[in-house]
Design brief:
By secondary structure, the chain is an alpha/beta fold. The chain contains 10 helices and 5 strands. The protein has a 5-stranded mixed sheet with strand order 2-1-3-4-5. α5 crosses α6. The longest helix is centred in the C-terminal third of the chain and has 21 residues, at about 140-160. The termini are far apart.
């Protein structure tokens, strides 16, 4: 039986290190969860939310899926947004993609990948709706630009959920941001997409 003992050993070492530097860390962490941020990101193992922005556990509520897509029929994603907005009362939702995203690349290539192709149809729609913005670009630049455009489209999708619409209607202090991450340099980029009200959304 493979128990992955080395991962349990690493867990013990990690927990011991934290308790040595801050003996009360886990007892305090276990008593409450009050993050101000919801991170909607890609499942890519190289894009860990807390580490990228250098925040400890408990500071970011996280949802991840392939290519950081927000679909209005995805009850998993919607449930996370609902809990974050209605229960945790987060003030910021960050949709964070990354350059060189494998999901976006697979959608661009048009090759057959099995079940995941059904999910990637959402990215293909983004590419089709924004074809003029991608014309004349090299494959590399087209991929990077589509990764950016996909983030912006998903920000719009978050803003159009009934959850966020109702929060704004009820006067909530809630902003939705579009960011992208460079795996090759570790740097986050703000895509100048920050929406804090229904009026801002409609004026875009």
């Amino acid at each position: 039986m493979k128990t992955l003992k080395h991962l349990f050993d690493r867990n013990l070492a990690w927990a011991d290190d934290i308790k040595q530097s801050n003996p009360e860390f886990f007892s305090k962490l276990s008593k409450q969860q009050a993050p101000e941020y919801l991170w909607i990101g890609c499942s890519d193992s190289r894009v860990p939310a807390n580490q990228i922005v250098n925040l400890p556990p408990g500071e970011i509520f996280v949802h991840r899926n392939i290519a950081n897509v927000v679909v209005h029929t995805d009850l998993n994603c919607l449930s996370v947004i609902h809990y974050a907005v209605e229960v945790l009362k987060v003030k910021h939702i960050m949709v964070c993609g990354h350059y060189g995203c494998g999901g976006v690349k697979a959608a661009m290539d048009g090759s057959e990948n099995g079940l995941i192709d059904n999910w990637l149809c959402h990215i293909k729609d983004v590419e089709r709706f924004n074809s003029e913005k991608l014309e004349g670009l090299s494959e590399h630049d087209k991929l990077d630009r589509l990764c950016e455009i996909n983030v912006i489209e998903q920000v719009n999708n978050v803003c159009n959920t009934t959850i966020v619409q109702n929060a704004w209607k009820n006067g909530a202090d809630l902003s939705v941001h579009g960011w992208i991450y460079g795996i090759d340099n570790g740097i986050l980029k703000d895509l100048d997409t920050c929406i804090s009200s229904k009026e801002q959304l409609l004026s875009r």
